Task: inverse folding
């Protein structure tokens, strides 16, 4: 396997420090990196070995960062607003791009990270492609049911410790940032339509047919509304984490997309 160098840093921003990790292959097939955006309970560490696999398979620089309040980034006191997906694209992501002096790039986002990736692409023409995995496109009943079930599970004794392993003393904030925001009445009408018509780059949308947080209407909505070239992959017998559950299928789809 090709050797990969790991680089860790903290981007000092007006809002707090953002933890960044990079996977750098010895030889690059392209100078355009892939930047990864994590899901609602995620962080850099929870990508596990997926970024290194991408770095070696694609011979690309892979970058992942913890959003403010998550993982090894600084604490965030205030809860997210209902516009937190837009705000990640317009406020926080530009700080990452500026800190790393990045020009052209490709985005790979999982779940709400996929939503954020599409928001970034709609506003920044330096984004040359988006790989969206299990992204929500609007709020379905199954979305609310899945989040409510997770909320009740984390209320049981000992369960919040599962998040503390990854987020430390920020774990309760991380959980609230997800469940309280998505279950709030003012979030029920949220959808991605406002940004998709401005996405002009190539888009790959991956979704499991057994995703516990959304139906295949999500990828179909995204592909139907972006203006750039787009394609979708529906993975059978797969839930909300295709890159973990069906790694080879996801990897092959990304390789084909990149080529």
Result:
């Amino acid at each position: 396997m090709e050797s990969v160098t790991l680089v860790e840093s903290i981007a000092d921003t007006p809002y707090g420090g953002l933890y960044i990790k990079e996977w750098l292959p010895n030889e690059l097939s392209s100078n355009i990196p892939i930047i990864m955006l994590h899901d609602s309970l995620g962080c850099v560490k929870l990508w596990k070995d997926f970024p290194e696999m991408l770095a070696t398979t694609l011979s690309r620089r892979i970058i992942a960062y913890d959003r403010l309040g998550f993982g090894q980034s600084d604490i965030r006191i205030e809860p997210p607003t209902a516009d937190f997906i837009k705000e990640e694209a317009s406020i926080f992501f530009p700080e990452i791009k500026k800190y790393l002096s990045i020009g052209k790039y490709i985005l790979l986002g999982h779940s709400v990270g996929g939503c954020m990736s599409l928001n970034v692409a709609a506003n920044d023409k330096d984004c040359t492609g988006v790989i969206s995995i299990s992204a929500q496109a609007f709020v379905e009943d199954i979305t609310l049911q899945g989040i409510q079930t997770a909320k009740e599970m984390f209320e049981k004794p000992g369960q919040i410790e599962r998040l503390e392993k990854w987020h430390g003393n920020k774990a309760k904030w991380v959980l609230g940032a997800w469940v309280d925001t998505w279950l709030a009445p003012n979030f029920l009408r949220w959808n991605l339509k406002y940004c998709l018509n401005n996405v002009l780059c190539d888009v790959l949308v991956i979704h499991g047919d057994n995703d516990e947080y959304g139906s295949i209407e999500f990828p179909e909505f995204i592909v139907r509304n972006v203006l750039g070239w787009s394609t979708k992959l529906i993975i059978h017998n797969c839930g909300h984490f295709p890159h973990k559950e069906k790694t080879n299928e996801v990897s092959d789809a990304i390789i084909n997309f990149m080529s």
